[in-house]
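Q: Hi! First time doing this. I have a protein sequence and I read that you can turn it into a structure. Is that right? Here it is:
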Amino acid sequence: MERVKYGIIGTGYSCKAHIANLNLIDEAEVVAISGRNKENLAKAAGWVKRNKPKTFSDYHQLLKENLDVVIIATPNYTHKQITIDALEMGKNVLCEKPMATTIEDCDAMISTAEKLGKLLQIGLELRSCDYFCKIKEIVERGDIGKPHYLWWKEFRGPFQPGRGEWRFTNLTGGTLLEKNVHHFDIFNWIINSKATRISAFGGKNVYKEYEVIDNAMVIIEYENKTRANLNLCLFSPWRSKSGSHQELGIIGEKGKLEGYPDINQICIFDQKGSDTTCEIGQPPHLSAYGELSDYDKWFPLLYNEHLALVASIKEGKKPIVGGRIGKEAVVLALAAEEAIRTHQVISLKSFTKGRRV
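A: Yes, that's right. Below is the predicted 3D structure, encoded as structure tokens:
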């Protein structure tokens, strides 16, 4: 069986996570890695178990290799140019989240992929994660009725700084873009309606030296009048009574769902007082990663993403999370940041006027 040949641009934390999963997939192999730091590049090459990948300090040289797909695992503000360079060299692309830091950059990436007939997948891997797929299944089955109100709270410690502490700067596109495109994307996926307006409050209450905010409350309203609320705090202890620093919920006319992603638990409550707890089992391949720190436990979330990507490339299928889906999450994040700056409720129609959406 011919393996899908991967190249990876970027040698940081995401690179390690992707390689850990690709090591487990027989139909894939990492054949080339690019990074500017020689020490990190050598370390990244050592993470690959199946073969010895070629290494390049200049990603343009990597793009000359015989590759089926390139992973872009570099800082947010570099995604647009590297993605377009890779597409124009005839490569399919998996671009890490967030897709880009502006709507215009998202549009450029989408139009290039469509013009050249190449696959562009965005790294919003929660859509392929067993846990969130189970939540989607419960909602679509009608167990709690039509969703009317969603919430997600994440109370945690600060970002990993990244090289040069770029995650603490406006190069991220803002905290809500860097951290919360996953949350916005799951809202969009579950609600399955077009967001119409957004309001938000936030600021730098503790980490005043950051260029970006350290807490926020966001409210989104959709065309079908469903509403979603995101609460984020980056100066909280990681621990909680439930054992999960994240909690999400969905309320419909027939009941309520509460989810605790860090402990793989979903609880369903109906209007009659009954409740059901669903434990999502650990993936069977989990032990193959070796010992994972608390911070590394998200590694297994990428496994299904790569299975789907390999299938898309081999069978010519559309990606599970294409550029237009990735862009919708970027729009919500940028609009929420705008709402915080301007103290205004943002009409998404006005916010995206003159831009292709």
